[in-house]
């Protein structure tokens, strides 16, 4: 009896595992490199895509049973006379680059992949989310970042567009955002109720006002401390699925993670997510089965003090992406794994 039951349990667990792997096989990543840095003033962030690839992203995704297509790096036109518009810097370059990226992400989605946009600075979320939405319709957006990146062109004190991308994407802010040169193609495509922030700890007064005004769901580092990351993710997914379950776009700024782990980034802020909290976020979103597009941005090797700083930042970026595609910390094995016979 006992042995029969054990066999039954074994059969059950084998079939569950099979099912799980079948699910894994359906995943496929369509990778787009966006070596672009003009949404902020620091050079170096354009090396992000190649560094993340060089750290073995594609091979490791394949090893965990994920189909991968690399669409290569986008190229961006130089823009002459890109003078500030009001306070906003390099609007023409940012607008043009994002238009190109939007088309590229749309094509990746039409090919049936989960899009993976490797930045580059966070201004690229404009094109990535716009293109994702153009292909699949309404999205839920999970924005993991130290910053809210929701300044309008008029509330921004720096004029750097990497601190503004959400303002161009939200329906609710449309009337508050001036049309910049090379931005006329951008149509708002995200509703405030479909946006969740995780990891905030450096929010400008204008941004804080906007978040309250629009009633945006925010899990700042205070909530992560108070609730723990597991509860934060549970509440995030409950909140986003109270109405219709929409495809999820994860926009992950590496500066969400604590600078002790990911120091090679343009605007580090102390008191961030641990490595484990970051990975947990990606694992949880992967398990929803709704993750449809991912950005990994703001890895900047020139901002690391040492080679170790850069390595730690890049390898964390890779691990976050692996978590998005089914890597489990308990261990993994290929679908076709067979035990060697004696
Ligand atoms: Mn950001």
Outline the low-pLDDT stretches.
Answer: 1-25
Tell me how many strands there are: 8
Bound small molecules, deduplicated? manganese (II) ion
Spatial strand sequence of the major β-sheet: 2-1-3-8-7-4-5-6
Order of helices and strands: HEHHEHEHEHEHEHHEHEH
Helicity level: 25-40%
Classification by helices and strands: alpha/beta
CATH class: Alpha Beta
CATH architecture: 3-Layer(aba) Sandwich
Radius of gyration: 20 Å
Would you give the CATH topology? Arginase, Chain A
At the fourth level of CATH, the homologous superfamily is Ureohydrolase domain
Structure overview:
- With 342 residues, the chain is of the alpha/beta class.
- It has a single domain (28-325), classed as Arginase, Chain A, CATH 3.40.800.10.
- The chain is 40% helix and 13% strand.
- It contains eleven helices and eight strands.
- The protein has helices at 2-26, 48-54, 57-63, 91-110, 125-136, 165-169, 205-214, 221-227, 229-240, 275-287, 307-324; strands at 28-34, 67-73, 114-119, 140-144, 195-198, 217-219, 248-253, 291-297.
- The chain has an eight-stranded parallel sheet, with helices on both faces.
- Helix 2 (48-54) packs across helix 11 and helix 10 (275-287) packs parallel to helix 11.
- The longest helix is centred in the N-terminal third of the chain and has 25 residues, at 2-26.
- It is globular.
- The chain starts with a helix and ends in an 18-residue tail after the last helix.
- Residues 1-25 have low confidence and may be disordered.
- The chain binds manganese (II) ion (MN).
- Manganese (II) ion is lined by residues 122, 145, 147, 149, 253, 298.
């Amino acid at each position: 009896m006992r042995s029969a039951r054990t066999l039954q349990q074994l059969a059950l667990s084998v079939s569950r595992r099979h099912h799980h792997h079948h699910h894994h096989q359906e995943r496929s990543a369509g990778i787009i490199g966006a070596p672009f840095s003009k949404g902020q003033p620091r050079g170096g962030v354009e090396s992000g895509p190649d560094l993340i690839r060089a750290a073995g992203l594609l091979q490791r995704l394949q090893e965990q049973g994920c189909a991968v297509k690399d669409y290569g790096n986008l190229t961006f036109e130089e823009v002459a006379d890109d003078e500030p518009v009001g306070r906003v810097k390099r609007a023409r370059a940012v607008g043009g680059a994002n238009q190109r990226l939007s088309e590229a992400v749309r094509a990746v989605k039409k090919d049936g992949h989960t899009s993976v946009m490797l930045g580059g600075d966070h201004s690229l979320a404009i094109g990535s989310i716009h293109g994702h939405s153009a292909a699949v319709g309404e999205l839920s957006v999970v924005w993991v970042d130290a910053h809210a990146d929701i300044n309008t062109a008029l509330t921004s004190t720096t004029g750097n567009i990497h601190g503004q991308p959400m303002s161009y994407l939200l329906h609710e802010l449309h009337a508050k955002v001036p049309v910049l040169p090379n931005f006329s193609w951008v149509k708002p495509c995200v509703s405030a109720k479909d946006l969740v922030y995780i990891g905030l700890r450096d929010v400008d007064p204008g941004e804080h006002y906007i978040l309250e005004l629009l009633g945006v769901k925010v899990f700042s580092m205070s909530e992560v401390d108070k609730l723990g990351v597991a509860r934060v993710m549970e509440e995030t997914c409950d909140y986003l699925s109270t109405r219709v379950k929409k495809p999820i776009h994860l926009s992950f700024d590496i500066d969400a993670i604590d600078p002790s782990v990911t120091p090679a980034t343009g605007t580090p802020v102390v008191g961030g997510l641990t490595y484990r909290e970051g990975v947990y976020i990606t694992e949880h979103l992967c398990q929803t089965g709704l993750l449809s597009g991912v950005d990994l941005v703001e890895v900047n090797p020139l901002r690391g003090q040492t080679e170790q700083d850069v390595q730690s930042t890049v390898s964390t970026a890779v691990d976050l992406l692996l978590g998005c595609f089914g890597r489990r910390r308990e261990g993994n094995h290929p679908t076709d794994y067979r035990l060697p016979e004696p």
